[in-house]
Write a structure and sequence with these properties.
Chain A: It comes from Ureibacillus terrenus. Chain A: Belongs to the LutC/YkgG family. Chain A: Is involved in L-lactate degradation and allows cells to grow with lactate as the sole carbon source. Chain A: It holds the Pfam family LUD_dom. The complex is a heterodimer of chains A (about 240) and B (about 475). Chain A is of the alpha/beta class and about 240 residues long. Chain A has a single domain, classed as Rossmann fold (3-Layer(aba) Sandwich), CATH 3.40.50.10420. Helices cover about 30% and strands about 25% of the residues of chain A. The longest helix of chain A has 14 residues, at about 45-55. The termini of chain A are far apart. With about 475 residues, chain B is an alpha/beta fold. Chain B folds into 2 domains: about 10-45 and about 315-475, no CATH class; about 50-300, Rossmann fold (3-Layer(aba) Sandwich), CATH 3.40.50. Chain B is built from 24 helices and 10 strands. In chain B, the strands form 2 sheets. Chain B has a 6-stranded parallel beta sheet, sandwiched between helices. A 4-stranded mixed beta sheet of chain B has the order 8-5-6-9, with helices on both faces. Classes of the chains: A alpha/beta (about 240), B alpha/beta (about 475). Chains A and B meet through β1, α1, α6, α7 and β10 of A and α2, α3, α4, β1 and α8 of B.
Amino acid sequence: MTIQNRDEFLNQIAKSLGRPVKTKVERPVWKHAPQLEVLKNASQDELVEVLKQQCQNIHTTFVQTDTANLPNVLQQVVTDFGGESVITWNDERFEKFGVKKLMEIWPETGIKVYEWNPDTPKENIRQAEQANIGITISEMTLAESATAMLCSHPKRGRAMNFLPQNMIVLIPKSTIVPRMTQAAQKIHQQIEKGQQLPSCILFMSGPSNSADIESVLIVGVHGPVNATYIVIEDQ
Amino acid sequence: MMAMKTSDEQFKERVEKNLNDSFMRGAISAAQARFQTRRQARVEELGNWEEWRAHGEEIRKHVLENLDAYLYELSENVEKRGGHVFFAKTKEEASDYIKNIATQKQAKKIVKSKSMVTEEINLNAELEEIGCKVVETDLAEFILQLNDHEPPSHIIVPSLHKNRRQIREIFAKAGYDKSEQPEEMALFARKTLRQEYLTADIGITGCNFAIAESGTVTLVTNEGNADLVSALPKTQIVVMGMERIVPTFEEMEVLVSLLTRSSVGQRLTSYVTLLTGPKGEYETDGPEEFHLVIVDNGRSKILGSEFQPILQCIRCAACVNVCPVYRHVGGHTYGSIYSGPIGAVLSPLLGGYEDFKELPYASSLCGACTEVCPVKIPLHQLLHLHRQKIVEQEGKAPISERLIMKAFGLGASSSPLFNVAAKVASPIMSPFARDDKITSGPGPLKAWTEVRDFPAPNKESFRHWMKQRQKGEKS
């Protein structure tokens, strides 16, 4: 861990600004805060509706279910994507949502299942690269932009969000907030408390896309080609 | 070739060449229209866009006034998380540091995601010189790289000037033999580049916003390539312009919202990725080594000067997408990696008047750029300020201005040139009279946009304008 050339660099900045070097500054109280007005008093059900509408704009399939029916819904979505092979996190929430058992019987029905494993780095990438479907869980979900927040962890790899062809994100209804503002506030508070951030926090809104060829929207470039969100009534 | 500079041709020659490229002009005009429509929808739905802009402006101004303090905090936090920070005063220092890492790692292959600052420091050529294979993974940059390292013509969509038929021909060089359908061509890029990520030794990305409070780097993307570039290779190098920093996650969020709405008309892009240091101890992907290279390369000279507001820029290209001059002459005419109004202000500051003194004249001062800027940079006023400086410095109207006049003058004899001369000429007439009119804001814009296909004035009025303009130069 090194920091090189900092003093000289910062001195030059201070010189340009016509004052001595500062290494500390208080963040001011801002005059404006328009971001707090967006979906300000929306209920949880209204946020779900906003999320659902926005899914159409980002080429993402929206499905809603209660916890009891989640295994059936997940089975259907996996079947619709053609089954074959699934990669998931090693995450106790799958058990909590009642889909762990479903995942355990998939191999018997011809669907390969691989769990991200902290002990086998190379195999993780190999499996993710070959997997037809990736299944993850959103930590916080932004209604305005239909965005899932996914955090890296020894049992939850980064590349898993990008290498499989199809992406399924489980979205507990309780995780839905109006917009990125609320997620940023929460993360900021965690930092102030001295908590360590995950090395990668990903805000993902639907499948990858590009408009680099004649401004024509192409859905599915380097990351997933298709995405389905399953909103779970968990409250 | 210099890093900023993309052409050794004279400005006048570039104007003529690009005006006669009707494919390119059609592509740009259509793309501008699409960008504008999308942006407008996303801006209007908020209902209080002016307040958003005011917030964006106050954040950026505060950061610039306290840039040393925020860079100090950032570097401390990157180090705390096990990353390395290198402050590079010049582009040579930046590229030398990165070359050293490549040499130490015995890197054969380097994958990159789109970054304007790495273009600025001429990084690809430098790395190729020491024997590395450098692969651009953004679809547009992949296209340009295959086309013999063609320079970008737009800061968001570097290949904006290319049509699908041309792209198909470029891909054929790499063995592509299918149709010119964008989806099919993108699939080819996906397959080709997948292997590159998996076998690369180093990943290099830019940085949309660094976050001081945590040492985090924000990447705002749609394709997913930047995430693979940062997840798979063992070493990651992030290169950032020194002004691209915010205090906390809360300001990052606001600026990302301004950026995605202004640039591509999306509420958010598909991916907003926040990377803090190397991978955690027990994580199996992500880089083992993390380097942040913070580049000055002329920015500290802008800081504290009358041009300081240009450092507020968040590189959204909204100004490029409304600029009538850009629409007619295209990105390559600017001869800089930074084109459009932002490029016309920034290129002479970073690259010097010697190479870029014509650029401030590649504007009608209509003020459309200023009106759309999400962080309220007074772009057309800065362009005018450049013109004043250039005249002051040269002691008279610069020869370059005459050259441009001649280029536009020549236009009267050929149709595309004449059209642009007319379109550029007309709105310039009112602001040309006095400074106070120019600084009074984007008033003339209204007249400009209300008459989209502005009728070309007859030769008399154009000649009259030329005469007026020549008088103005002498006084």
